[in-house]
Design brief:
Length: 284
């Protein structure tokens, strides 16, 4: 009798053990399914291309909306600029709406490759480092990295920045251009650059006297100086080098890249590009 009771208990114990293992197995299986689903969603996000964009009817363009005159908010809060006008014209010719997405500039490639945006088109300078992360169209505008100071300084060359507080936008090619001179940077005030999230903030600190120089895109800087009063500023004779603007897409977005390039070529041929260019840069 005792032996029979023990046998029943052992049987119940084994059954409970099996149920426990089954429960753990189901949890693990659900975890694997969720992980697989997440990976699939991520893979889909980073492989968005022209066909899917055409089906949904819009393309998402990432930008820093303080980057005048390429893409910025006017006094009415409207998004305007050279790149804005170019993008609208390009995609209007293929019946695709452009939706503009403000992004943190230092995170632009992450935003692109995670699928949150489809294009980086906002005074986006072509560089070898960036080419490792994105594909670029051929250049559509030339630029250089210039040194801007207040009018009463004696800064004319890169070496004149020694001992000075020098500001740039974080994640910009201005940062890369200056950091290409590490020995010079070590001799800046504090032994480093002063970083800002936007160029506007960098120029505001320059005007307030909290920094002594800003290195920035010439396209943006000259537009800013004109609006704030060119007589208050000076552009140094020496700069940090020439560069070119391109439009960045994911490396999986070959058809989108081809569409943008071909349409820009059409706009150059029919005079539309020059018309848009003239509306923003004719006086510079």
């Amino acid at each position: 009798m005792k032996s029979e009771r023990m046998s029943v208990k052992e049987s119940e114990k084994k059954e409970r053990g099996w149920k426990g293992k089954k429960y753990v197995f189901l949890i693990l299986l659900m975890g694997i399914m969720l992980w697989t689903s997440a990976c699939g969603s991520s893979s889909k996000a980073v492989s968005v291309d022209l066909k899917e964009i055409e089906e949904r009817g819009y393309v998402v363009m990432g930008l820093d909306d303080t980057f005048a005159p390429m893409g910025f908010r006017n006094n009415a809060g409207e998004l305007v600029g050279f790149d804005i006008d170019l993008a609208k014209e390009v995609f209007s010719r293929v019946d695709i709406e452009v939706r503009f997405q403000q992004i943190e500039w230092s995170m632009k490639e992450t935003e692109l490759n995670s699928g949150n945006i489809d294009l980086i088109w906002n005074g986006y300078s072509i560089s070898d480092e960036r080419k490792e992360k994105v594909d670029f169209t051929k250049p559509y505008l030339e630029n250089k990295q210039i040194i801007v100071t207040l009018a009463d300084t004696k800064i004319e060359a890169r070496d004149d920045l020694k001992g000075k507080k020098v500001a740039v936008q974080n994640g910009s090619t201005a940062y890369d251009a200056v950091m290409a001179y590490p020995d010079l940077v070590e001799e800046f005030s504090g032994g480093e650059l002063v970083l800002f999230d936007t160029n506007n903030e960098a120029f505001m600190d320059l005007e307030a006297g909290r920094t002594e120089a800003v290195v920035a895109d010439e396209v943006l800087a000259r537009y800013y100086l004109k609006g704030r009063g060119e007589e208050k500023f000076k552009v140094a004779e020496e700069d940090f080098g020439d560069e070119e603007y391109g439009i960045g897409v994911r490396k999986t977005s070959k058809e989108l890249l081809e569409l943008v390039e071909n349409t820009l070529d059409e706009m150059r041929a029919d005079g539309t590009y020059d018309k848009i260019y003239g509306s923003w840069f004719s006086q510079n």
